Amino acid sequence: MRLTCIIILVLLFSEVRAQYFQFSQFDFTPDRVNPALISSSNDITASVIYRRQDISETMSIKSANAFISYPFLNNRNKRWSALGISFLDDRTGVTNIYKVNEVGLTYALSLPISRQDELSLGVKGIYQSRRFSLDGLYTGSQFVPDRGFLPGMDNGETLDGLRQNLYTFSIGMGWRHLDRKGVQQSYLGLSFFDFNRPEQSFYGSDDQLPTSFVLAGNFLIYQQGALSVYPEATYTASASKSVVNLGAVSKYDMGVNGSWEAEVNVITKYSSGGYAIAGLQVDKGDFKIGFSYDFSLNDKPLNNAFEVGLLLRAERSPNKKRHRSRKSKRKPKVKSKTTSAKKVKRPIKEVDKPQRNDNLIENSDTILVDTDKNEELEVAEDSIATDARVGEFQHHTLNLDETNVLFYFDFNSTEINQESKEYILELSELLKQAPYLKVKIIGHTDNKGSADYNEKLSAIRCNSVTDLLVSLGVERERIEVESKGEESPISTNDTEEGRSKNRRVEFILHY
């Protein structure tokens, strides 16, 4: 009887596990879809998901997975790779007679190929333990005369020979297209799981684990107001079996038309395995919770499954030490041939909250500045010009990758006047509200004085503006400075009017 049960169990569960296993809400388990996916987030993430799938009227598969990922940032605080670790506990049968436990380690690289496109490459290694266990089986050996049935006693059954440990390796690559805010618009990925094909037989026969091939993709097909729709497709092939999942995830941003800052995702999919998937997720940014149900499209209960998942996110802290190091290097000291430059402190006067300025940047939100304290800005003031003041200041509509704003300076001046400070306050709020934007500051002078001196003077002007932006909360690594001196005039240097136009600082916004 025992041998018969063993043979039946081996045949049954070998068939059940022939197909590569996927959770229906695979955004909680990205490494199981493609190892390269873990490098797609700047956040530290941790997720858990539980799934119960019926395989008969009396038997089910219970699966629990935990996943943690950590992104790595370069010296400019840009994500370049990520490390992930996963744990899976999978139990099958009335008494959890068949158990699979695994630990996975995943590493992925993120390679930007354009401003809005990135390529990712990932590898994953798994240690897996499979075994049959009769610990939950009750037998007559647990009956004691005059005492009755004692479930805590040994049942007298062992399956020590039905245990196996194996190692598997997987690889994947993916492409993502992002919008200007860094939100994914489309994705396409290809991955190969268990490509080393380890031996999986419990009896040492020639039975290798098949390699599984997964092709997955999605794209934004519709967006109107708070609603966006992403069709999705996943193709999984293993040995002679294949499954196609087709459907869509509809996302509704509750913060667009209401005060509740959350996104609601509705999942609707169909599987060629004979079942449909319906799910609901609520994403609050720092956490996401999701539920889904797989229901059979025929009369059999096979494949009916319920899932519940939770994902937590935490912002990755920037590399502060490197940031301070770069900051100290970007403060040039300038000395004049006639007398040395000195540092003077000029208080930044309190400014009123600016009104809405729709011309600040196309399609931007209202920018509100709230300041209630005085700050100081260190400016290197050349001793040649002691009473010089800033000239005319011009506002322009900000266009990406174009020269947008001009600050005009008097001769040898590095001073920022109050009107310019107010605009820089607005610009700092825009940069803080749009962390995907960067700014390039370019300094220019007229041709009065030596070329070397003018280049240093333009650097001082750039750093005056840079220091003000940093003091207002803009990260220094998002600011690029270029001092061109007198080499790029926009007007003639033969007249005072032309030279006044050439003494300027330009802003260029870019991604």
TrEMBL record:
Keyword presence, Membrane: yes
Q: Where does the UniProt annotation locate this protein?
A: Cell outer membrane
Which InterPro entries has this protein been placed in? Answer: Bact_OuterMem_StrucFunc, OMP_bac, OmpA-like, OmpA-like_sf, PorP/SprF_Bacteroidetes
Q: Where is the composition biased (Basic residues)?
A: 319-346
Looking up SUPFAM superfamilies in the UniProt record yields: OmpA-like
Quick check: keyword Membrane in the entry?
yes
- Renumbered residue ranges of the record's region Disordered: 317-355
Keyword annotations of the record = Cell outer membrane, Membrane
Query: Cellular component per GO?
Result: cell outer membrane
Q: Which Pfam families match?
A: OmpA (PF00691), PorP_SprF (PF11751)
| Location (main, coarse) | membrane
Q: Which domain of life is it from?
A: Bacteria
Q: Which residues form the OmpA-like domain?
A: 396-511
> Which species does this protein come from?
Fulvivirga sediminis
- What is the name listed in the Swiss-Prot or TrEMBL entry for this protein? PorP/SprF family type IX secretion system membrane protein
